[in-house]
Amino acid sequence: MFSNKHRSRAICGDVFDIPDTKADLVYLDPPYAPPSDDNDYIKRYHFLEGLSVYWRGLTIMEETTTKKLKKQFTPFAYKRTIEDALLRTFEHFEHAGAIVLSYSSNAIPDAARIVDLLGKVKPSVEIIAIDHKYSLGTHPAASRRDVREYVFVGRNA
């Protein structure tokens, strides 16, 4: 992960199963909760998701042209559960030096609400916004291709 001769660790799995340790930094990139359509993370990023775990424990939908993975439940993917899932995640890692969250403007909650949620455990929250145009898996006439990708950085001071 880093070539700085310090021990680093990456974990792939259910965020709530990760032990609460005193990490210097916790980076989170959860699935985005769409405001209305089906924006299933596994459907859109099935190859990378499968590759990250060498397809162990995943069901490949053989009837699909691109060999998609079967949808898995996550509380991060639904507008009725996303805020609670984010807050519980922030609380789970409140002892980390910093919490960094990657999120998109085409999802809910909006940036102001994420700042509010992250601010419950980290009193200093910075937002870095980067304009982005989706191209893969989106037809050229789609109205929601232009977005802002946000990086939220929460610290103790």
Instruction: Report the C-alpha radius of gyration, rounded.
Output: 17 Å
Could you give the count of β-strands?
4
Identify the strand order in the major beta sheet: 1-2-4-3
Uncertain regions spanning at least 5 consecutive residues: none
Classify the secondary structure makeup into a structural class: alpha+beta
**Mean of the pLDDT scores?**
81
Listing every helix as H and every strand as E from the N terminus to the C terminus, the arrangement reads EHHHEHEE
Euclidean distance between termini CA atoms: 26 Å
The proportion of strand residues reads 15-25%
Shape: globular
What does the main sheet amount to? Answer: 4 strands, mixed
Helicity range: 10-25%
Instruction: Give the count of helical stretches.
Output: 4
Task: Describe this entry's structure for a reader.
- The model has no long low-confidence stretch (mean pLDDT 81).
- The protein has helices at residues 41-44, 46-52, 82-92, 111-119; strands spanning 25-28, 98-104, 124-133, 146-155.
- It has a 4-stranded mixed β-sheet.
- It is built from 4 helices and 4 strands; from the N terminus they run βαααβαββ.
- The two termini are 26 Å apart.
- By secondary structure, the protein is an alpha+beta fold.
